[in-house]
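Sorry to interrupt, but I need a hand with the structure work. Could you write out one complete protein record for me, on any chain you like? Just paste the record in under my message, thanks.

. . .
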Amino acid sequence: MDERTRVPSWLETAAAWSWRLLLVGLAFAVLVGVAMRLSLVTVPLIVALFLATLALPAARRLTRRGWPPAVAAFVVVFGGLAVAVAGIVALVPILADQGGQLVPTVAVALDDLLHWLETGPLGFDQRQLQELGEQLVVQLEEQSGSLALGALGALATIVEVVVSTVLALILLFFLVKDGDRIYGWFLARSPDAHRDVLRGVVVRAWDAVGAYIRGTALVALIDAVGIGIGLAIVGVPLVLPLAVLVFIGAFVPIIGAFVSGMVAVLVALADGGPTTALIVLAIVVAVQQVESDILQPLIMQRMVAVPLHPIVVLAVLVAGTVLVGVVGAFLAVPLAAAASAVTNELRLRHQTDLDGPRPLGGRHGRLTSDPQPVVPVPGPQRESPPSRS
């Protein structure tokens, strides 16, 4: 071939990578599309798998003490559900009582805010503020008809949420009860040549999700306790509900902490005025800065083998929210952590195939790049699920 017509090597490499990445992207898009179409099944299954990383160790402790697997799974799953429901029920009277006391102060706080906007450094004209308020009222009136028409859709959504919750609990129960058999069944039917790779990938993904959830829960608890103590010292009402909101919001990285903190600031503004709101804002910012800059990196680096960069977290968080909504915001980052752990495991195995075995210490004291020898699986009962109990 003439050198003048020969395709440059960099272009050949780019073309080879391009069509492979295109096929991978297409396969991923098809997978996401199918999962979204079957969201009534896939979302409860993913939620059950995530919760199983927390429930399996507790159930195994009970089985080691002689409890039957079914009884241990029932106690762990539905006992945990009972504790969560009892906590929510205990919060309702507090929220109703303190919320009822807070409502009259909201109007006063809004009047003070409007007065500050008019006389403060921003210098808004009162007529402009009135026109803005009238426009908001008109928009709400226009949307009332569409809200009424969407009542049926809201009812359907509630039914879907209830069905998904019940399905997730049932799946969680069987995953905790029969996790050994389910994992062994799939592993026994995988090809012998790929069984070790499959085992390593599953263990890596399982460890990553469990470590991420435990680390996030610990960080959220510290965040909620710190902000709750600050709110109690300042004297802001609804301390316990706001602390619970901060705890839940911490499971939605970046956005959740900001939203829950702003809710606390607004409650402080309605109850104590701008000065109290500024003090609460300073407390929220201080606690969240200590959590994000010191505690979270320390905890996550100890628990998660492949921590995610904030840019990746934000990107997958937005993508999950756009595709699935609020549920996607909760599930996106753990799924990304699992995918990162899987790709890292495959990369280490590929590097081992190229360079030969070399000892790379893992968090579990095993050689992460030195594959274990393939052991024939005689039956599903002989296998153990990927748990760190």
